[in-house]
Amino acid sequence: MRRNEEKKPKNKKQWIYLISLLLLLILLVGVAIVYIHNKDEKDENTLAYTDLIKELAQGKIEKIEMTVGSTTVKVKQKEVEEEKKSIVPNTESFIGLVQEKVAEGNQIELVQKPKSPLTQIPGFMISFLPTFIMLALFIMIFKMQGLGEKGKVYDDTERKTKVKFDDVAGLDEEKEELVEIVEFLKRPEKFTRMGAKIPKGVLLYGKPGTGKTLIAKAIAGEAEVPFISMSGSEFIEMFAGLGASRVRKLFEKARKLAPCIVFIDEIDAIGSRRSSNSGAETENNQTLNQLLVEMDGFSSEETIIVLAATNRPEMLDKALLRPGRFDRQITIPTPDLKGRLEILKIHAEDKRIAEEVNLESIAEDTAGLTGAELANILNEAAIIATKNHHEDIENEDIEEAVKKVTVGLEKRTRVYSEKDKKLTAYHEAGHAVVSRYLPTQTDVKEVSIIPRGVAGGYTMYKSDEDKYYISKTEMQEKLIALLGGRAAEKLVLDDISTGASNDIEVATRNCKRHGNQIWHE
Q: Could you tell me which of 53, 154, 415, 453 has the fewest CB atoms within 10 Å of its CB?
C-alpha cells in the first residue's frame, strides 16, 4: 500500500505535464495552420478583384470555383492554362454579379464546393486561443499551489532516515545536548509528568558543511520518527500568499504524522528580519508571520519539533529566536583534531586505504576544514588513486587531494617566462625564510612555484594544532610572514609586482577581523 500511495502523486504530476504539453502542441498546430492558410492566400499566382471584375465584363472568364464560407475563389481564364486565385470582399454580391453575366449569355461555369472541416480549424484556433492560454495559466497556478497532490504537497519529504548519531563525528557535546530531543520524541510523558514542556524549535547554526543537516537527520533516525525536510527557498514564490499557504500545509502534514521532526534548511531565506517594504519583502513577511503563528499553535499533546539550520544567524528576525519558538540555539562548530580524525575514519570505511596512510597526520594538516571538506578530500583522493592506477589510496594521493581542495588544481602546462619563475621563487622563498625565524609561526611544509588555481606559487605550513585564540605578537608576526614575499622581491630584484596582492588582501582581512580586539594596547 505504501508504494502505491507514493506512486499516485508522481502519476498526477505526469498527467499535469502531459496536459500542458498537449495544450502547447495544439497551439503550435493552430499557429502552423494559420500560417499556411495565410501563405496560401498570399500566393503570387493571384488575380486582383478589380481585374477579375474587368475580365468578367469582357467575357474572358471561363470557370469560377467557390467554397462555401470562403472569400477565396479559383478563376479559370480563357486561353490561360493555370488557374488563379482571387479574394472576393463580398461573396453574395459577387455571386449575383456572376449570375447576371450568365443571364446575359456569357458562358461561365460556376462551381460551389461544400465547406471543408480543415478550413474551419484556423478560425477555431484563433477564437479559442485566449481560452487555451488561460487554461494553461490555471494549470501552472494549480501545480505551484500543490493542490493536485491531496496532501502529498512536497515530493519525497516523508521518510524515516537511516542516519544515526554514530554516523555523526566531531560533535560529541552537541549530540549530548540533542539526545534530550530524542527522548522528548520517544517518551514525551517522561518529561510532561515532571511539568516540563517539550521544546518547539531548535536552531542549528554554523559554517556551511559542518553537519547541520546530518545531525538533524540523525535525531530523526535515533527517534525513529518521520523526517519532513524542506528548504527555506521552497516557501518563496512570486504569487502573494503562496509561501504562507505552503507553511500551513507543511504543519498540517506534520500534525497528521506526529510525533515527527520538521526540518527547515537555510531558514534565513524566509526568517530574515521583517521590513515594511512592498513586493517580495511583503510576501516574505507573510510567510514568516505564518511560520510564527504555526509554531505558537502547537499544543502540549502534539510532539512536533521544528529543527532549522542557517549559517547566518544574525539575519534572523528576533521574533523567531525568542523562547517558545526556537527554545534552543546550538552552534555547530568546525571539528577539532579529534573530531577531524573521527570524521576521516567514518568516510574511510568504504574506501580502500593503504596501510601506510596515517589518518591522524591528515587530520593535523587540515585544521579549520569542515566535515564536508574532509569528505571531499578523501573522495578526491580516491579519484586521483584511480587515475594513477593504484591498488589502494596512498599517501601521495591524499596529499595531492589536500592541495587540490585547499589551494586549487595544479597547472603544469601553463607556460611561464624565466623572469616570472624567478620572481615567484624569490617571493615564495621570502614567505618561507621569514616564517622560519618567527617564533610564533608554524613550520613550513612545502614551497612550490608550480601554479595552482589562481596562485602562481604557494607556501604550505604545518598545522598540527587547533587555535582558538590569537595573541597580539602572533598576529603581528603573521602579518610579517604574509608580507615576507613582497619584501624578498624588493630586496633581491629591487622591484615589486602584483603577485603579493592576495597576501595584502589576507593581511587586511586579518587586521579587520582581529584588529579591534587585540590591536590596542
A: 415
Q: Give every CB contact of residue 174 below 8 A, 6+ residues apart in sequence.
A: 215, 330, 332
* 466 lies in the same domain as 373: no
The counts of H helices and E strands in the chain are: 19, 11
Query: Residue 331 has what DSSP assignment?
Result: E
Q: How far is residue 88's CA from residue 293's CA, in Å, rounded to a whole number?
A: 69
* 3-class DSSP string for 262-324: EEEECCHHHHECCCCCCCHHHHHHHHHHHHHHHHHCCCCCCCEEEEEEECCHHHECHHHHCCC
What's the predicted TM-score (pTM) here? Answer: 0.63
Strands (E), 370-503: 444-448, 458-461
Neighbour-count burial of 343, counting CB atoms closer than 10 A to its CB (0-12 exposed, 13-18 middle, 19+ buried): buried
Report the C-alpha gap between 390 and 461 in whole angstroms: 28
Q: Which residues span the domain enclosing 350? A: 337-406
Question: Which is nearest to 198 in space by CA: 54, 281, 303, 276?
Answer: 303
CB count in 10 Å sphere of residue 16 = 16
Mean pLDDT of 422-441: 88
Residues annotated as catalytic (active site), given as ranges: 428
Q: Is residue 181 part of a domain?
A: yes
98 and 204 in a single domain? The answer is: no
Among candidate residues 357, 413, 416, the one with its CA nearest the CA of residue 381: 357
Cell triple for 148: 493536485
175, 309: one domain? yes
Decide if 154 is inside a domain.
Answer: no
Confirm if 261 and 227 have CB atoms less than 8 A apart.
yes
CA–CA dist 114, 279 (Å, integer): 57
Q: Which residues of 62-86 are buried (b: 16+ CB within 10 A; e: fewer)?
A: bebbbbeeeebbbbbbeeeeeebbb
Amino acid 310 reads T
Kindly give the pairing relationship between strand 84-87 and strand 72-77: antiparallel
At 28, list the grid cell.
Answer: 503550435
The per-residue pLDDT for range 160-216, each reduced to its tens digit, is: 567 788 888 888 888 888 888 888 877 877 877 887 777 788 899 888 888 888 888
The set of cell numbers assigned to 364 is 593535523
CA distances from residue 129 to 25, 27, 262, 411 in whole angstroms, order as listed: 12, 7, 44, 57
**Residue 412 within a domain:** no
Tens-place pLDDT, residues 213-222: 888 888 888 8
